């Protein structure tokens, strides 16, 4: 019982030296690798860069104690950072008119978002509501990520080119960018585009090139992933050496040295109300992404993660972030892959990384003073390229217009009206489309495939049929949305075939008959009785049958319930006397 | 084409004398029978009694031209009247602070409600959105009708007993009633309780008693149904004769003589906005009730009605009502049954009744001056008894706790917070419960029933199985809400049975595989491949297979697609070498 809520107890007793060495090495690698990313995503969220480091510290400890994934690494992630930026700006503007990043209201909004997300995740975890995440369908997530990638790129392009942009909307921002092009700042442009080109080159050709010059595969992987670290070191040195900051290149500047201060998210009720829905979306999106990654990695190692306990782990991490000057966190793809590939065995690797980042914030922040913002923008831009998934969009179009339309609406509305509208509309549209599809169920008249006990659609296969028996296979659960449709189908059948004596409803695909559908079956039975047609059922599943037995329907039904379609056929297909 | 939109063209060319006589007789009977009802429901809606007559005039003509049901009779109905009363009071209070029935704002609200309902119905009809009504599940409708019955009874009890009640909420109203009991008005009480007892007696014992004294069955039916007319005539005469109006019995009083005036619903935008959702509910509820009745009656005569064209017919009737001093109308149960049983053959019977009621409003309204409100209250109270369906509530409880909970929530919220909250919550809860059920689908390992080609759940039947093949029947369409659940089910299966070599997913109950589920099948296939387990499908339906062929899944799948479970069994159950 205790183990379920504190998963650390499942692995700590079996901990040994071999695992310890592996975790130590992985933790140190992660420490170095995630610094650029942590700083970058804090900047993306409109927060001071150091917040990204704070958010990679205590929240990681909380997740190590509560989470069930052995290798998931939590911290600031791009999508969540983007959502924080949009939400903090919008609610800041709505609540106090103060919308600029860096104001105390803005920082408060980020803390309150962390706290609310954390509490919501904990609640969902304790109520075992992990299934809610399932309602974010794959096309909606893919559409949302693609649109977010575009929004993130748009938010970074000013930093990359050295043009100051003030609009937040996508189109005005692009217009401003074009107007501002003549005044672009060449040193910033050099650093930004240089870092971007370097990272893009490394991403595309890094591994094969390094392998060709003799690196082992793990070393080539590691060096490729270290690209952002390398870019940070080089551009920081260049900026410092050539005094580019004085020439107008934006740099991170003074970072307070020391461990994160204790912060108290304000208890402004109107702020909480305004942030409740955004916090819910942030938590669900972060959760879905984390759990997908966690499940994939666990599957590789033949382990299992518990989605409901993951809610608790992520919830704990976010609550801790709210009290330690952080920002909303989630399982990050890049940091998780680095952690996993570096050989992490248990969450202790995360603890090592937390200690490492703690040491950095204690002692090494002065070294980051001259780190150009443009380098961070390049890091962000490259890392979000994975979000924009054009092949997935094309596949979805090919596979299902209905899924595609949910995806398209999510993309469009995310771009035009923000992440909140985008996701919510996508989810609601997915549900509406599913309900619409199930409300007009497919049904098929089936016939016997000669010399077998198998029955298939008469329109698709060569089958045997007899004119006084209709075998109607209903391809959907029967519930309120399609109950009337079923009536129409049967009545049409009876109206067009006057020679009918038996109608057999084949229920192999009927997984549920609700009270409305039961009412309709009653009506069908009565109506067929008037027309001297006998109603039978076949292949009713156990759970459905159990339920029917609790009603009067089976007593009133004119015909029988056959175990199989074949049994119904054998009995009814002989000509009646 | 024209016939589709003007159904009158389908029957008018074949009209003949025999039909004409039948329609004339039915129309005259309906004229007399529906007068008390029309007056009563207008009073229930808080409108002048004559509005009920106006609403039974031109709207009937509109429906006769546009509707597809031969015998449905439209006019004021109890549920719609109740909804109008609640909505007009609430929005009146919200918009202008003037909430009393009889004020010009109140009358305006009723007209605007008619117009909006009419326009919404027409729109839904032209967009062929009749299916929307299916989302009002049977338990939600039954719950809503039951709660409305209670609310209507509560609204009439003051009139019946001669106690003046001012509160609108259920509980304060009852408290007020109890406090007011000492001051009840005896003559009103006498008329109200007298009429009520007479009508209840007639309803219960009328038919058998009349048969016993020698009436034919149709005559007994007709006289029983004429109860309200009889009560109206007798109590009006008594009130007039004994000058009870002067003694304090509330009567209808002066009714303007003449045809309905032309009215123009105001174009106050805030009023329209406030009434949009209530109008939508009124139209959908009215539509569902009308269509159910229409279908039932059409079925008896081997005819069909077109739900989408019914939307147009009801929409036209409501638009006309808005411009002819009426109130929202719908197909009424009582008037329809009277019309049908009186032998109406075509909508011309409705036209005859409209002319008849026109004659009444032109010449006979002075006769209604002394009609006591208490008599109308008794008529309403008896007619709503059919709404309260306790056996249905009990059956639903027995059949499905999930359907019952939707019903209970609808009843409770309708009683406590009004019809709007009641219906909307009921619908949303029904949908949520359906989604929740489908998100955790039933699945069963099946085995062969010896010596047959039939496969059933191993836990419910004696079956043959082999240890290296798992036949897993999935009892639900695969879509985003349950895609992850499917993965969990298969992974658990593989984890617990190390000897497995083949997993066959039996898709006989899978009516849809959406893009999210396809993604999950891909993941399952890859994961099983890692574990050296081969994934097969069996009994994939035609439409599902067509769609799968448009993706890459079938190429990547390690195993095969079998036509039947038996084919998979025959092929795979032999021990592998």
From TrEMBL, chains A, B:
Keywords: Membrane, Transmembrane, Transmembrane helix. Its main location: membrane. SUPFAM superfamilies: SpoIIaa-like. It is a multi-pass membrane protein. PROSITE patterns: STAS. Pfam families: STAS (PF01740), Sulfate_transp (PF00916). The chain crosses the membrane at residues 21-39, 45-66, 78-100, 106-127, 139-161, 184-202, 222-242, 271-291, 311-330, 342-363, 370-388, 408-436. InterPro entries: SLC26A/SulP_dom (IPR011547), SLC26A/SulP_fam (IPR001902), STAS_dom (IPR002645), STAS_dom_sf (IPR036513). The keyword Endoplasmic reticulum does not apply. The keyword Repressor does not apply. Residues 459-577 form the STAS domain. GO terms for cellular component: membrane. CDD domains: STAS_SulP_like_sulfate_transporter. One of its GO terms (biological process) is transmembrane transport. It is found in: Membrane. This is Sulfate permease. It comes from Billgrantia kenyensis. The gene is sulP.
């Amino acid at each position: 019982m205790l183990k379920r809520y504190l998963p650390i107890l499942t692995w700590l007793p079996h901990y040994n030296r071999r695992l310890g060495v592996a975790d130590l090495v992985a933790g140190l690698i992660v420490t170095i690798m995630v610094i650029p990313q942590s700083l970058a995503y804090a900047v993306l969220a409109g927060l001071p860069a150091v917040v990204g480091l704070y958010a990679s510290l205590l929240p990681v400890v909380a997740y190590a104690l509560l989470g069930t994934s052995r290798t998931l690494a939590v911290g600031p992630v791009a999508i969540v950072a983007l959502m924080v930026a949009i939400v903090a700006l919008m609610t800041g503007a709505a609540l106090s008119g103060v919308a600029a990043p860096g104001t105390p209201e803005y920082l408060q909004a980020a803390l309150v978002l962390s706290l609310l997300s954390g509490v919501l995740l904990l609640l969902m975890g304790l109520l075992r509501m992990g299934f809610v995440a399932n309602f974010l369908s794959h096309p909606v997530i893919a559409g949302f990520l693609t649109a977010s990638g575009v929004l993130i790129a748009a938010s970074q392009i000013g930093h990359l080119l050295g043009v100051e942009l003030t609009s937040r909307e996508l189109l005005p921002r692009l217009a401003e960018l074009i107007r501002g092009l003549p005044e672009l700042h060449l040193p910033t442009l050099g650093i930004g585009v240089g870092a971007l080109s370097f990272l893009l080159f490394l991403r595309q050709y890094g591994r094969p090139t390094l392998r060709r010059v003799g690196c082992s595969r793990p070393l080539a992987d590691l060096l490729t992933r270290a690209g952002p670290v390398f870019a940070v070191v080089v551009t920081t040195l260049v900026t410092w050496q050539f005094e580019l900051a004085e020439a107008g290149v934006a740099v991170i500047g003074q970072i307070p040295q020391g461990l994160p201060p204790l912060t108290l998210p304000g208890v402004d009720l109107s702020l909480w109300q305004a942030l409740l829905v955004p916090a819910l979306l942030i938590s669900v999106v972060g959760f879905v992404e984390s759990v997908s990654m966690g499940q994939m990695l666990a599957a590789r190692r033949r382990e299992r993660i518990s989605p409901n306990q993951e809610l608790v782990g992520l919830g704990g991490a976010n609550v801790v972030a709210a009290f330690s000057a952080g920002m909303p966190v989630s399982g990050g793809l890049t940091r998780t892959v680095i952690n996993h590939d570096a050989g992490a065995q248990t969450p202790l690797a995360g603890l090592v990384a937390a200690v490492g980042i703690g040491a950095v914030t204690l002692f090494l922040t002065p070294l980051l003073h001259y780190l150009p913002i443009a380098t961070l923008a390049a890091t962000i831009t490259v890392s979000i390229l994975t979000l924009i998934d054009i092949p997935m969009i094309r596949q979805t179009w090919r596979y299902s217009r209905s899924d595609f339309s949910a995806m398209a609406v999510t993309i469009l509305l995310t771009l035009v009206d923000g992440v909140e509208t985008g996701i919510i509309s996508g989810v609601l549209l997915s549900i509406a489309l599913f309900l619409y599809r199930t409300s007009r169920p497919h049904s098929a008249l089936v016939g016997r495939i000669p010399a077998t006990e198998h029955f298939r659609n008469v329109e698709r296969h060569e089958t045997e049929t007899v004119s006084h028996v209709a075998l109607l296979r209903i391809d959907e659960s029967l519930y309120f949305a399609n109950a009337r449709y079923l009536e129409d189908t049967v009545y049409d059948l009876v109206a067009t075939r006057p020679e009918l004596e038996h109608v057999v409803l084949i229920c192999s695909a009927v997984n549920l008959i609700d009270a409305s559908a039961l009412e309709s079956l009653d009506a069908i039975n009565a109506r067929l009785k008037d027309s001297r047609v006998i109603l039978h059922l076949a292949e009713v599943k156990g759970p459905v049958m159990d339920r029917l037995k609790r009603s009067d329907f089976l007593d009133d039904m004119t015909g029988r319930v056959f175990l199989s379609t074949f049994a119904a056929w054998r009995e009814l297909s002989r000509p009646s006397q």
